[in-house]
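During the second year of the project, the team shifted from modelling isolated chains to modelling whole assemblies. The rationale, set out in the original proposal, was that interfaces cannot be judged from single-chain predictions alone. As a representative example for this report, we include one of the complexes processed in the last quarter. Its constituent sequences, exactly as entered into the pipeline, are reproduced here:
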Amino acid sequence: MRLKLTIAYSGTDFAGWQIQPATDTVQERIEKALAEVAKVPVRLHGSGRTDAGVHALGQVAHFDAPDHLTMNPFNWVPALNTKLPPTIRITECEEVAADFHARFSALAKTYTYHLSLAPILPPFLAKRAWHIPRQLNPDDLREALAFYLGTHDFRAFSANRGNETADTDYLRTITRSDFEQIPEGYLLTFTGNGFLYKMVRFLTGAAVQASQGFLRQDDLYNLLHSPTEIPPTGQTHPLCAPADGLTLLEVNYDNLAS
Amino acid sequence: MRLKLTIAYSGTDFAGWQIQPATDTVQERIEKALAEVAKVPVRLHGSGRTDAGVHALGQVAHFDAPDHLTMNPFNWVPALNTKLPPTIRITECEEVAADFHARFSALAKTYTYHLSLAPILPPFLAKRAWHIPRQLNPDDLREALAFYLGTHDFRAFSANRGNETADTDYLRTITRSDFEQIPEGYLLTFTGNGFLYKMVRFLTGAAVQASQGFLRQDDLYNLLHSPTEIPPTGQTHPLCAPADGLTLLEVNYDNLAS
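Output from the structure prediction step:
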Protein backbone atom coordinates (compact mmCIF):
# COMPACT_ATOMS: atom_id res chain seq x y z
CA MET A 1 0.00 0.00 0.00
CA ARG A 2 1.41 3.37 -1.05
CA LEU A 3 0.94 6.10 1.53
CA LYS A 4 1.29 9.86 1.20
CA LEU A 5 2.51 11.85 4.22
CA THR A 6 2.03 15.57 4.78
CA ILE A 7 4.78 16.91 7.01
CA ALA A 8 5.44 20.14 8.94
CA TYR A 9 8.83 20.98 10.36
CA SER A 10 10.93 23.76 11.77
CA GLY A 11 14.06 23.75 9.64
CA THR A 12 16.19 25.42 12.30
CA ASP A 13 17.38 22.24 13.97
CA PHE A 14 18.02 20.21 10.79
CA ALA A 15 20.51 20.16 7.93
CA GLY A 16 17.68 20.25 5.42
CA TRP A 17 15.37 17.54 4.11
CA GLN A 18 17.60 15.13 2.28
CA ILE A 19 19.66 12.41 3.92
CA GLN A 20 23.37 13.22 3.93
CA PRO A 21 26.19 11.52 5.79
CA ALA A 22 26.93 12.76 9.31
CA THR A 23 24.11 15.30 9.45
CA ASP A 24 20.70 15.38 11.08
CA THR A 25 18.07 15.64 8.34
CA VAL A 26 14.28 15.51 8.31
CA GLN A 27 14.14 12.62 5.82
CA GLU A 28 16.48 10.55 7.97
CA ARG A 29 14.44 11.21 11.12
CA ILE A 30 11.23 10.11 9.41
CA GLU A 31 12.82 7.04 7.78
CA LYS A 32 14.07 6.00 11.22
CA ALA A 33 10.58 6.43 12.67
CA LEU A 34 9.08 4.47 9.76
CA ALA A 35 11.56 1.65 10.30
CA GLU A 36 10.75 1.54 14.01
CA VAL A 37 7.04 1.18 13.25
CA ALA A 38 7.45 -1.20 10.28
CA LYS A 39 10.33 -3.22 11.80
CA VAL A 40 11.97 -3.19 8.35
CA PRO A 41 13.81 -0.41 6.48
CA VAL A 42 11.41 1.87 4.61
CA ARG A 43 12.46 4.31 1.88
CA LEU A 44 10.77 7.71 1.95
CA HIS A 45 10.46 9.78 -1.25
CA GLY A 46 10.00 13.52 -0.78
CA SER A 47 8.45 16.03 -3.17
CA GLY A 48 11.85 17.71 -3.25
CA ARG A 49 14.65 18.89 -1.01
CA THR A 50 14.48 21.81 1.32
CA ASP A 51 17.78 23.43 2.31
CA ALA A 52 19.17 23.67 5.81
CA GLY A 53 17.10 26.16 7.80
CA VAL A 54 14.11 26.10 5.43
CA HIS A 55 10.79 25.34 7.13
CA ALA A 56 7.76 23.40 5.95
CA LEU A 57 4.08 23.38 6.77
CA GLY A 58 3.05 21.09 3.90
CA GLN A 59 6.01 19.05 2.66
CA VAL A 60 4.79 15.81 1.00
CA ALA A 61 6.48 12.41 0.81
CA HIS A 62 5.40 8.88 -0.04
CA PHE A 63 6.44 5.41 1.02
CA ASP A 64 5.26 1.86 0.50
CA ALA A 65 3.95 0.27 3.67
CA PRO A 66 5.24 -3.30 4.00
CA ASP A 67 2.56 -5.90 3.13
CA HIS A 68 2.63 -7.42 6.62
CA LEU A 69 1.33 -4.13 8.07
CA THR A 70 -2.44 -3.85 8.03
CA MET A 71 -2.49 -0.55 9.86
CA ASN A 72 -5.11 1.99 8.89
CA PRO A 73 -3.34 4.93 7.13
CA PHE A 74 -4.74 7.28 9.75
CA ASN A 75 -2.94 5.42 12.51
CA TRP A 76 0.47 6.14 11.02
CA VAL A 77 0.12 9.78 12.13
CA PRO A 78 0.31 9.23 15.92
CA ALA A 79 2.57 6.18 15.49
CA LEU A 80 5.20 8.28 13.71
CA ASN A 81 4.73 11.47 15.75
CA THR A 82 5.51 9.70 19.02
CA LYS A 83 8.87 8.67 17.50
CA LEU A 84 9.71 12.09 16.05
CA PRO A 85 11.00 15.27 17.75
CA PRO A 86 8.28 17.90 18.35
CA THR A 87 9.88 20.07 15.63
CA ILE A 88 8.81 17.48 13.01
CA ARG A 89 5.10 16.62 12.81
CA ILE A 90 3.25 14.31 10.47
CA THR A 91 -0.04 16.11 9.90
CA GLU A 92 -1.76 13.69 7.49
CA CYS A 93 -1.41 10.19 6.07
CA GLU A 94 -3.57 8.88 3.25
CA GLU A 95 -3.56 6.00 0.81
CA VAL A 96 -2.70 6.93 -2.79
CA ALA A 97 -2.59 5.09 -6.11
CA ALA A 98 0.37 2.76 -6.65
CA ASP A 99 1.75 5.07 -9.34
CA PHE A 100 1.60 8.21 -7.19
CA HIS A 101 5.03 9.75 -6.71
CA ALA A 102 5.60 12.64 -4.29
CA ARG A 103 8.11 14.23 -6.65
CA PHE A 104 7.02 13.27 -10.17
CA SER A 105 3.25 13.61 -9.61
CA ALA A 106 3.59 17.13 -8.16
CA LEU A 107 1.84 19.75 -10.30
CA ALA A 108 2.66 22.85 -8.28
CA LYS A 109 4.36 24.05 -5.11
CA THR A 110 3.69 27.05 -2.96
CA TYR A 111 6.31 28.73 -0.78
CA THR A 112 5.99 31.65 1.59
CA TYR A 113 8.79 34.00 2.62
CA HIS A 114 8.60 36.04 5.83
CA LEU A 115 10.24 39.47 5.78
CA SER A 116 10.41 41.26 9.13
CA LEU A 117 10.81 45.03 9.21
CA ALA A 118 10.55 45.22 13.01
CA PRO A 119 13.12 47.65 14.44
CA ILE A 120 14.30 44.77 16.64
CA LEU A 121 13.59 41.20 15.51
CA PRO A 122 11.51 39.47 18.23
CA PRO A 123 13.34 36.42 19.69
CA PHE A 124 10.55 34.12 18.50
CA LEU A 125 11.23 35.11 14.88
CA ALA A 126 14.96 34.35 15.15
CA LYS A 127 15.70 31.88 12.31
CA ARG A 128 12.11 32.19 11.10
CA ALA A 129 12.19 35.52 9.25
CA TRP A 130 14.63 37.63 7.27
CA HIS A 131 15.22 40.76 9.32
CA ILE A 132 15.49 43.83 7.09
CA PRO A 133 16.08 46.89 9.24
CA ARG A 134 16.07 49.08 6.07
CA GLN A 135 12.66 50.27 4.87
CA LEU A 136 11.35 49.10 1.52
CA ASN A 137 8.77 50.47 -0.90
CA PRO A 138 5.72 48.16 -1.02
CA ASP A 139 4.68 49.39 -4.46
CA ASP A 140 8.08 48.49 -5.89
CA LEU A 141 7.95 45.15 -4.09
CA ARG A 142 4.55 44.39 -5.64
CA GLU A 143 5.76 45.41 -9.08
CA ALA A 144 8.90 43.28 -8.85
CA LEU A 145 6.95 40.23 -7.70
CA ALA A 146 4.41 40.63 -10.52
CA PHE A 147 7.32 40.69 -12.94
CA TYR A 148 8.05 37.00 -12.22
CA LEU A 149 4.59 35.81 -13.31
CA GLY A 150 4.49 33.59 -16.39
CA THR A 151 7.02 31.26 -17.98
CA HIS A 152 10.64 32.36 -17.97
CA ASP A 153 14.15 30.98 -18.05
CA PHE A 154 15.00 31.44 -14.38
CA ARG A 155 18.66 30.38 -14.48
CA ALA A 156 19.74 33.81 -13.24
CA PHE A 157 17.57 33.12 -10.17
CA SER A 158 19.14 29.82 -9.20
CA ALA A 159 22.33 28.40 -7.77
CA ASN A 160 24.42 25.67 -9.31
CA ARG A 161 23.74 22.29 -7.74
CA GLY A 162 26.61 20.60 -9.55
CA ASN A 163 24.54 18.15 -11.59
CA GLU A 164 23.51 20.57 -14.35
CA THR A 165 24.05 19.52 -17.98
CA ALA A 166 23.67 21.19 -21.36
CA ASP A 167 20.12 19.81 -21.41
CA THR A 168 19.09 21.20 -18.03
CA ASP A 169 15.74 22.91 -18.38
CA TYR A 170 15.56 26.25 -16.61
CA LEU A 171 12.07 27.16 -17.78
CA ARG A 172 9.56 27.41 -14.96
CA THR A 173 6.06 28.86 -14.79
CA ILE A 174 5.11 31.10 -11.87
CA THR A 175 1.35 31.45 -11.33
CA ARG A 176 1.40 33.41 -8.08
CA SER A 177 3.92 35.95 -6.85
CA ASP A 178 2.61 38.54 -4.43
CA PHE A 179 2.61 39.52 -0.77
CA GLU A 180 0.37 40.43 2.12
CA GLN A 181 1.16 42.82 4.91
CA ILE A 182 1.57 41.19 8.31
CA PRO A 183 2.45 42.81 11.66
CA GLU A 184 5.81 44.56 11.20
CA GLY A 185 6.53 42.84 7.91
CA TYR A 186 5.46 41.14 4.72
CA LEU A 187 4.60 37.57 3.81
CA LEU A 188 5.52 36.80 0.22
CA THR A 189 3.79 33.90 -1.57
CA PHE A 190 5.10 32.10 -4.67
CA THR A 191 3.31 29.33 -6.57
CA GLY A 192 4.87 27.62 -9.55
CA ASN A 193 5.02 24.34 -11.43
CA GLY A 194 8.50 23.88 -10.02
CA PHE A 195 11.41 25.83 -8.60
CA LEU A 196 15.12 25.67 -9.36
CA TYR A 197 17.71 25.28 -6.60
CA LYS A 198 17.42 28.31 -4.24
CA MET A 199 15.09 29.97 -6.73
CA VAL A 200 12.56 31.31 -4.19
CA ARG A 201 15.40 32.86 -2.22
CA PHE A 202 16.73 34.54 -5.37
CA LEU A 203 13.24 35.75 -6.35
CA THR A 204 12.82 37.16 -2.85
CA GLY A 205 16.28 38.73 -2.66
CA ALA A 206 15.94 40.42 -6.05
CA ALA A 207 12.43 41.71 -5.24
CA VAL A 208 13.69 43.14 -1.94
CA GLN A 209 16.59 44.84 -3.72
CA ALA A 210 14.17 46.30 -6.26
CA SER A 211 11.94 47.56 -3.42
CA GLN A 212 14.97 49.29 -1.86
CA GLY A 213 16.08 50.94 -5.09
CA PHE A 214 19.14 48.74 -5.69
CA LEU A 215 17.68 47.05 -8.77
CA ARG A 216 15.54 48.62 -11.47
CA GLN A 217 12.81 47.13 -13.61
CA ASP A 218 15.21 46.78 -16.54
CA ASP A 219 17.71 44.94 -14.34
CA LEU A 220 15.01 42.41 -13.51
CA TYR A 221 14.04 42.30 -17.18
CA ASN A 222 17.61 41.55 -18.17
CA LEU A 223 17.95 38.83 -15.54
CA LEU A 224 14.78 37.15 -16.84
CA HIS A 225 15.39 37.65 -20.57
CA SER A 226 19.14 37.49 -21.08
CA PRO A 227 20.12 34.80 -18.61
CA THR A 228 23.67 34.15 -19.59
CA GLU A 229 24.98 32.34 -16.56
CA ILE A 230 23.99 30.85 -13.26
CA PRO A 231 25.10 32.97 -10.31
CA PRO A 232 27.68 31.32 -8.10
CA THR A 233 26.34 29.20 -5.25
CA GLY A 234 26.23 30.52 -1.72
CA GLN A 235 24.14 32.48 0.71
CA THR A 236 26.48 35.41 0.24
CA HIS A 237 25.28 36.01 -3.30
CA PRO A 238 23.73 39.50 -3.12
CA LEU A 239 20.48 38.33 -4.73
CA CYS A 240 20.00 35.25 -2.51
CA ALA A 241 17.83 35.80 0.57
CA PRO A 242 18.68 33.77 3.70
CA ALA A 243 16.97 30.41 4.30
CA ASP A 244 15.43 31.62 7.59
CA GLY A 245 12.25 33.19 6.20
CA LEU A 246 11.37 30.41 3.75
CA THR A 247 8.56 27.89 4.28
CA LEU A 248 7.28 25.20 1.91
CA LEU A 249 3.56 25.79 2.34
CA GLU A 250 2.06 23.08 0.14
CA VAL A 251 2.54 20.72 -2.77
CA ASN A 252 -0.36 20.24 -5.15
CA TYR A 253 -1.28 17.06 -6.99
CA ASP A 254 -4.00 16.11 -9.42
CA ASN A 255 -6.98 14.94 -7.37
CA LEU A 256 -6.94 11.63 -9.21
CA ALA A 257 -3.42 10.86 -8.06
CA SER A 258 -4.11 11.34 -4.38
CA MET B 1 23.69 56.54 35.76
CA ARG B 2 21.07 53.88 36.53
CA LEU B 3 19.57 52.29 33.42
CA LYS B 4 16.47 50.15 33.02
CA LEU B 5 16.46 47.45 30.33
CA THR B 6 13.39 45.81 28.84
CA ILE B 7 14.24 42.34 27.57
CA ALA B 8 12.57 39.73 25.38
CA TYR B 9 13.82 36.15 25.17
CA SER B 10 12.91 32.68 24.08
CA GLY B 11 13.43 30.55 27.17
CA THR B 12 13.92 27.36 25.20
CA ASP B 13 17.69 27.61 24.84
CA PHE B 14 18.44 28.84 28.37
CA ALA B 15 18.47 27.45 31.90
CA GLY B 16 16.27 30.30 33.09
CA TRP B 17 17.06 33.89 34.01
CA GLN B 18 19.32 33.69 37.01
CA ILE B 19 23.04 33.03 36.89
CA GLN B 20 23.90 29.55 38.09
CA PRO B 21 27.18 27.67 37.86
CA ALA B 22 27.78 25.64 34.68
CA THR B 23 24.55 26.64 32.95
CA ASP B 24 23.66 29.04 30.18
CA THR B 25 21.33 31.70 31.59
CA VAL B 26 19.86 34.92 30.25
CA GLN B 27 21.26 37.07 33.06
CA GLU B 28 24.77 35.73 32.45
CA ARG B 29 24.54 36.38 28.71
CA ILE B 30 23.47 39.98 29.29
CA GLU B 31 26.07 40.61 32.02
CA LYS B 32 28.74 39.36 29.60
CA ALA B 33 27.47 41.70 26.89
CA LEU B 34 27.39 44.60 29.39
CA ALA B 35 30.97 43.87 30.44
CA GLU B 36 32.09 43.80 26.81
CA VAL B 37 30.58 47.22 26.20
CA ALA B 38 31.62 48.76 29.54
CA LYS B 39 35.06 47.07 29.69
CA VAL B 40 34.42 46.44 33.40
CA PRO B 41 32.20 43.90 35.18
CA VAL B 42 28.59 45.12 35.48
CA ARG B 43 26.00 43.60 37.80
CA LEU B 44 22.49 43.25 36.35
CA HIS B 45 19.45 43.12 38.68
CA GLY B 46 16.33 41.46 37.27
CA SER B 47 12.71 41.99 38.30
CA GLY B 48 12.71 38.34 39.30
CA ARG B 49 13.73 34.92 38.06
CA THR B 50 12.11 33.04 35.26
CA ASP B 51 12.51 29.27 35.24
CA ALA B 52 14.21 27.20 32.55
CA GLY B 53 12.01 27.19 29.45
CA VAL B 54 9.94 30.23 30.49
CA HIS B 55 9.83 33.00 27.86
CA ALA B 56 9.71 36.77 28.22
CA LEU B 57 8.51 39.66 26.12
CA GLY B 58 8.91 42.30 28.82
CA GLN B 59 11.38 41.20 31.49
CA VAL B 60 12.92 44.22 33.22
CA ALA B 61 16.37 44.62 34.77
CA HIS B 62 18.53 47.54 35.90
CA PHE B 63 22.25 48.23 36.10
CA ASP B 64 24.52 51.14 36.90
CA ALA B 65 26.48 52.35 33.92
CA PRO B 66 30.09 53.06 34.87
CA ASP B 67 30.81 56.79 35.22
CA HIS B 68 33.40 56.78 32.42
CA LEU B 69 30.68 55.84 29.90
CA THR B 70 28.87 58.82 28.46
CA MET B 71 26.77 56.75 26.06
CA ASN B 72 23.21 57.83 25.41
CA PRO B 73 20.85 55.25 27.05
CA PHE B 74 19.27 54.62 23.65
CA ASN B 75 22.61 53.47 22.21
CA TRP B 76 22.87 50.59 24.68
CA VAL B 77 20.12 48.76 22.76
CA PRO B 78 22.06 48.07 19.53
CA ALA B 79 25.39 47.85 21.41
CA LEU B 80 24.07 44.97 23.55
CA ASN B 81 22.00 43.27 20.84
CA THR B 82 25.00 42.83 18.56
CA LYS B 83 26.69 40.91 21.39
CA LEU B 84 23.67 38.77 22.30
CA PRO B 85 22.21 35.69 20.56
CA PRO B 86 19.11 36.47 18.43
CA THR B 87 16.97 34.62 21.00
CA ILE B 88 17.69 37.41 23.54
CA ARG B 89 16.79 40.97 22.53
CA ILE B 90 17.07 44.21 24.46
CA THR B 91 13.97 46.12 23.34
CA GLU B 92 14.37 49.32 25.41
CA CYS B 93 16.89 51.14 27.57
CA GLU B 94 16.04 54.23 29.58
CA GLU B 95 17.53 56.24 32.42
CA VAL B 96 15.80 55.84 35.79
CA ALA B 97 16.11 57.42 39.22
CA ALA B 98 19.08 56.28 41.31
CA ASP B 99 16.72 54.56 43.75
CA PHE B 100 14.87 52.58 41.08
CA HIS B 101 15.18 48.83 41.60
CA ALA B 102 13.92 46.36 39.00
CA ARG B 103 12.75 43.98 41.71
CA PHE B 104 11.81 46.15 44.69
CA SER B 105 10.16 48.96 42.71
CA ALA B 106 7.92 46.56 40.77
CA LEU B 107 4.23 47.13 41.46
CA ALA B 108 2.74 44.40 39.27
CA LYS B 109 3.65 41.70 36.80
CA THR B 110 1.69 40.21 33.95
CA TYR B 111 2.19 36.71 32.59
CA THR B 112 0.52 34.94 29.69
CA TYR B 113 0.11 31.19 29.31
CA HIS B 114 -0.46 29.59 25.90
CA LEU B 115 -2.64 26.46 25.82
CA SER B 116 -2.81 24.68 22.46
CA LEU B 117 -5.73 22.38 21.72
CA ALA B 118 -4.58 21.67 18.16
CA PRO B 119 -4.98 17.96 17.31
CA ILE B 120 -1.27 17.99 16.38
CA LEU B 121 0.97 20.67 17.90
CA PRO B 122 2.55 22.68 15.05
CA PRO B 123 6.38 22.42 15.08
CA PHE B 124 6.68 26.18 15.62
CA LEU B 125 4.79 25.89 18.91
CA ALA B 126 7.06 23.14 20.23
CA LYS B 127 8.36 24.42 23.61
CA ARG B 128 6.15 27.51 23.29
CA ALA B 129 2.74 26.13 24.27
CA TRP B 130 1.27 23.47 26.52
CA HIS B 131 -0.31 20.91 24.20
CA ILE B 132 -3.56 19.60 25.66
CA PRO B 133 -5.07 17.05 23.29
CA ARG B 134 -8.07 16.65 25.67
CA GLN B 135 -10.91 19.11 25.21
CA LEU B 136 -11.75 21.54 27.99
CA ASN B 137 -14.85 23.50 28.92
CA PRO B 138 -14.23 27.25 28.38
CA ASP B 139 -16.99 28.24 30.85
CA ASP B 140 -15.35 26.19 33.59
CA LEU B 141 -11.96 27.63 32.64
CA ARG B 142 -13.31 31.18 32.94
CA GLU B 143 -14.95 30.41 36.27
CA ALA B 144 -11.79 28.84 37.70
CA LEU B 145 -9.63 31.78 36.59
CA ALA B 146 -12.07 34.31 38.08
CA PHE B 147 -11.82 32.42 41.34
CA TYR B 148 -8.20 33.54 41.78
CA LEU B 149 -9.04 37.25 41.70
CA GLY B 150 -8.41 39.15 44.92
CA THR B 151 -6.03 38.64 47.82
CA HIS B 152 -5.40 35.06 48.94
CA ASP B 153 -2.84 32.87 50.63
CA PHE B 154 -1.49 31.14 47.53
CA ARG B 155 0.88 28.68 49.23
CA ALA B 156 -1.06 25.74 47.77
CA PHE B 157 -0.25 27.20 44.33
CA SER B 158 3.50 27.38 44.76
CA ALA B 159 6.55 25.17 44.99
CA ASN B 160 9.12 25.20 47.75
CA ARG B 161 12.23 27.15 46.82
CA GLY B 162 14.14 26.04 49.89
CA ASN B 163 14.55 29.49 51.47
CA GLU B 164 11.08 29.69 53.05
CA THR B 165 10.83 30.57 56.75
CA ALA B 166 8.05 30.78 59.29
CA ASP B 167 7.67 34.43 58.31
CA THR B 168 7.35 33.83 54.56
CA ASP B 169 4.41 35.80 53.26
CA TYR B 170 2.22 33.83 50.87
CA LEU B 171 -0.42 36.53 50.44
CA ARG B 172 -0.65 37.83 46.89
CA THR B 173 -3.24 39.95 45.10
CA ILE B 174 -4.40 38.94 41.63
CA THR B 175 -6.06 41.76 39.66
CA ARG B 176 -6.45 40.00 36.33
CA SER B 177 -7.05 36.32 35.62
CA ASP B 178 -8.85 35.53 32.37
CA PHE B 179 -8.29 34.21 28.84
CA GLU B 180 -8.91 34.97 25.23
CA GLN B 181 -9.53 32.46 22.48
CA ILE B 182 -6.72 32.22 19.92
CA PRO B 183 -6.46 29.93 16.88
CA GLU B 184 -6.69 26.34 18.17
CA GLY B 185 -6.18 27.34 21.77
CA TYR B 186 -6.40 29.80 24.63
CA LEU B 187 -4.14 32.55 25.89
CA LEU B 188 -4.46 32.99 29.66
CA THR B 189 -3.44 36.31 31.24
CA PHE B 190 -2.55 36.84 34.91
CA THR B 191 -1.71 40.16 36.55
CA GLY B 192 -0.75 40.41 40.21
CA ASN B 193 1.32 42.39 42.67
CA GLY B 194 3.66 39.43 42.81
CA PHE B 195 3.80 35.71 42.19
CA LEU B 196 5.20 32.90 44.30
CA TYR B 197 7.62 30.34 42.87
CA LYS B 198 5.90 28.50 39.97
CA MET B 199 2.60 30.13 40.97
CA VAL B 200 1.39 30.97 37.44
CA ARG B 201 2.03 27.38 36.40
CA PHE B 202 0.01 26.11 39.39
CA LEU B 203 -2.81 28.59 38.70
CA THR B 204 -2.86 27.42 35.07
CA GLY B 205 -2.65 23.72 35.86
CA ALA B 206 -5.45 23.89 38.42
CA ALA B 207 -7.68 25.94 36.10
CA VAL B 208 -7.12 23.44 33.27
CA GLN B 209 -7.97 20.55 35.61
CA ALA B 210 -11.13 22.38 36.67
CA SER B 211 -12.05 22.93 33.01
CA GLN B 212 -11.64 19.20 32.37
CA GLY B 213 -13.75 18.14 35.34
CA PHE B 214 -10.89 16.86 37.49
CA LEU B 215 -11.22 19.63 40.09
CA ARG B 216 -14.42 21.20 41.37
CA GLN B 217 -15.13 24.71 42.61
CA ASP B 218 -14.93 23.57 46.24
CA ASP B 219 -11.56 21.93 45.59
CA LEU B 220 -10.27 25.29 44.37
CA TYR B 221 -11.96 26.97 47.35
CA ASN B 222 -10.21 24.60 49.76
CA LEU B 223 -6.83 25.15 48.08
CA LEU B 224 -7.24 28.92 48.44
CA HIS B 225 -8.78 28.98 51.93
CA SER B 226 -7.28 26.08 53.84
CA PRO B 227 -3.72 26.10 52.56
CA THR B 228 -2.05 23.73 54.95
CA GLU B 229 1.13 22.94 53.08
CA ILE B 230 3.18 23.80 50.05
CA PRO B 231 2.98 21.12 47.36
CA PRO B 232 6.26 19.35 46.69
CA THR B 233 8.54 20.91 44.06
CA GLY B 234 8.71 19.55 40.57
CA GLN B 235 7.12 19.70 37.17
CA THR B 236 5.51 16.37 37.83
CA HIS B 237 3.14 17.83 40.42
CA PRO B 238 -0.31 17.25 38.93
CA LEU B 239 -1.31 20.90 39.39
CA CYS B 240 1.85 22.39 37.87
CA ALA B 241 1.63 23.21 34.16
CA PRO B 242 4.84 22.88 32.10
CA ALA B 243 7.14 25.88 31.64
CA ASP B 244 6.72 25.81 27.83
CA GLY B 245 3.58 27.94 27.55
CA LEU B 246 4.59 30.64 30.04
CA THR B 247 5.71 34.15 29.05
CA LEU B 248 6.53 37.13 31.30
CA LEU B 249 4.65 39.81 29.38
CA GLU B 250 5.44 42.93 31.41
CA VAL B 251 6.52 44.39 34.72
CA ASN B 252 4.82 47.56 35.88
CA TYR B 253 6.38 50.37 37.91
CA ASP B 254 5.18 53.64 39.29
CA ASN B 255 5.68 56.28 36.61
CA LEU B 256 7.73 58.37 39.02
CA ALA B 257 10.23 55.58 39.51
CA SER B 258 10.95 55.09 35.82
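The radius of gyration of chain A is 19 Å. The domain at 111-249 of chain A is CATH 3.30.70.660 (Alpha-Beta Plaits).
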